[in-house]
Design a protein that fits this description.
Length: about 210
């Protein structure tokens, strides 16, 4: 007596060539997906860094504008031996260092300092030493930021009017082009970490309202 075998003998699995093709296609899709995620992440951090830098520059200009408008004129304080410069506005001292990145543990040989733009009310006799941890006041810059340019200039022919110029840069030295200070400092744009670099250049004309 013979028994019939109803099972098909034509069932086949994937061949090695088919597996290799499937693996290649999956790898390409995965690579494209990873590239898209990296680009989205870079764009996100770049936008976040630029926004933060822009906000800080805006805050500096607004703070100084209000001090001039409702406080008084601007006096330039002689430069200190430590390199700090300052402006005195209505009894407030605006001490600043050009080209120094704000860091909690700075290396002065690498253009870093504890402060970059410090506002204090301890008199206007001389700028504070911003490379010293003992300096006290309100810091207007954020960590990893620096002043590339900063000036408050009286406008001749304009009664009690001043031109304020601020250039705030976010990023370490290796991310910058054209030095670490001056109106031409910018992000190099050729570094893989360029998303951690941003520049905001703002200016304003303000007139003293209280005399």
């Amino acid at each position: 007596m013979k028994f019939l075998n109803n099972k098909s003998n034509n069932q086949k699995g994937f061949t090695l060539i088919e597996l290799a093709i499937a693996t290649s296609v999956f790898s390409i899709v995965l690579l494209m997906l990873m590239t898209s995620v990296i680009k989205i992440t870079d764009d996100y951090y770049r936008g976040l860094t630029q926004s933060e830098t822009q906000n800080v520059a805006n805050n500096i200009v607004n703070t100084i504008s209000q001090a001039i408008q409702f406080g008084g004129g601007v006096e330039t304080v002689p430069t200190a031996n430590n390199g700090s410069e300052a402006y005195c506005i209505n009894g407030q001292l605006y001490s600043y260092l050009i080209g120094y990145e704000v860091e909690p543990n700075p290396n002065t040989s690498d253009n870093q300092a504890y402060h970059g733009l410090l506002v204090s009310t301890n008199g206007c006799s001389q700028p504070q030493n911003l490379t010293s941890p003992s300096s006290a006041g309100q810091e207007l810059l954020g960590q990893n930021m620096r002043l590339a340019a900063f000036s408050i200039t009286a406008l001749p022919g304009w009664s009690q009017s001043y031109y304020i110029h601020v250039r705030v840069v976010y990023g370490s030295n290796n991310l910058l082009a054209n030095g670490t200070s001056g109106p031409d400092v910018t992000c190099s744009g050729n570094n893989s970490l360029s998303r951690f670099c941003a520049v905001s250049d703002l200016s304003a004309v303000v007139q003293q309202r209280v005399q």
